[in-house]
Amino acid sequence: MKQFNCVSVAYFKKEELLLWKIRDTGMPNFCLQGLQEFREFCTWVKEYFLHPDRPLKFIVSGSEHSGIYNMGGDLTYFLDSIKTDNVSKLRTYAHLCIDAIYNMYNSFGLPVITIALVEGNAYGGGFECALAHDFIIAEEGAQFCLPENKFNLFPGMGAHSLLMRKLSTMDADVLIRSGNVQKAKYLQTLGLIEYISKKGNAIPELYRFTKSITEKFNFEYHHIQCKKLINPLSKNELLEITNLWVNACMQIEKFDLRKMEILINAQYRKVKIVS
C-alpha cells in the first residue's frame, strides 16, 4: 500500500472499502502541498484498484483531526495571493481544488460509491468536499458552514454546482447566502446527510451502513449514476465558477481582508496552532 504525506490510506478487503483520511500534520485545511499530492493519490487509487484481486465498492473520506473534518481553503494562502495581486498563484490553487472535487464526484473513475465520514466540523471547502461524495455520514454534533459571505466572497469550489443539484434552488441559496453554522440534524432534514451516528461510534455505523448498501449495491450504484446522468456536472462548469471566484478575490476591499484575518486567527486558536 502506497504511503502519502498528507493522507493516510487503509484498505479493508473483506468490506471492499478504502478509507483515506487527512493526516493530522497541522492546520486541517486544503494546503497547496496537500492538493498537489492529492492529484497523485487520485491517480494511484484508480490504477491500484483496477487490479481484479483488489475488490472495491466504497471509497470513504475522513480526518485524523479530532473534532474537525476539514476547515476548508488555506485562508493564509488566499490572503497572501490577494495582497500581492498574484492571480496566477491563486488560480493554480483553485484549479487543484477542482481537480480534487471532480475526482471525488466521479468516484476516482471507478465503479464505486463514495462516502464522506464527517466526525467533526466541515467548513467552507471542507463542506464542499463532503458534498462531492455520494453519501454523507455525520457524527452527532458535527457542524457545517459556508462562511465565505462573511468576508464578501462566495464558495468557489463546488458549492453552487453541488447544492443546486441536491436541493431546491431556494434551500441552496439560503445555505450559500447565510454563512451560518448548520447542525447535522438540520442538513439531514434537507436530505444532504444520509445518516447521523452517535459521537465516537462513526466507524461501526459506517460498516453497518456499507453492509446494508452492499446487499443492494447493483441498484444503489446505478441509481446514483442515473441521477448524475440526468443532471450532469462537467469539470468545465466547476472551472468557470472557480475562475469567477479568483476574479472576485481580487476585488474585495481591505475591510473584507481584515475579516479574513480575524477568521484565520480564530482557526489557529481552535486547532491550537501558533501562527
Strand order of the largest sheet: 1-2-3-5-7-10
Q: Using DSSP, what is the number of strands?
A: 10
Helicity, in percent?
40-55%
Along the chain, the helix and strand elements come as EEHEEHHEEHEEHHEHEHHHH
Provide the gyration radius in Å: 18 Å
- Number of H- or I-type helical stretches: 11
Shape: globular
The CATH architecture: Alpha-Beta Complex
Characterize the structure shown.
- The chain has 275 residues and is of the alpha/beta class.
- The chain has a single domain, classed as 2-enoyl-CoA Hydratase, Chain A, domain 1.
- It is 49% helix and 16% strand.
- It has eleven helices and ten strands.
- It has helices at residues 32-48, 75-83, 87-105, 125-131, 159-166, 169-178, 184-190, 202-214, 217-230, 235-249, 254-270; strands at residues 7-12, 17-22, 58-63, 68-70, 113-118, 121-123, 135-139, 143-145, 182-183, 195-197.
- The strands form two sheets. A six-stranded mixed beta sheet has the order 1-2-3-5-7-10, with helices on both faces. Strands 4-6-8-9 form a four-stranded mixed beta sheet.
- Strand 2, helix 1 (32-48) and strand 3 form a beta-alpha-beta unit.
- The longest helix has 19 residues, at 87-105.
- The chain is globular and about 55 Å long.
- The relative contact order is 0.14.
- The mean pLDDT is 95.
Record the SSE blueprint.
Blueprint: E1 7-12, E2 17-22, H1 32-48, E3 58-63, E4 68-70, H2 75-83, H3 87-105, E5 113-118, E6 121-123, H4 125-131, E7 135-139, E8 143-145, H5 159-166, H6 169-178, E9 182-183, H7 184-190, E10 195-197, H8 202-214, H9 217-230, H10 235-249, H11 254-270
Helix pairs in contact: 1-3, 3-10, 5-6
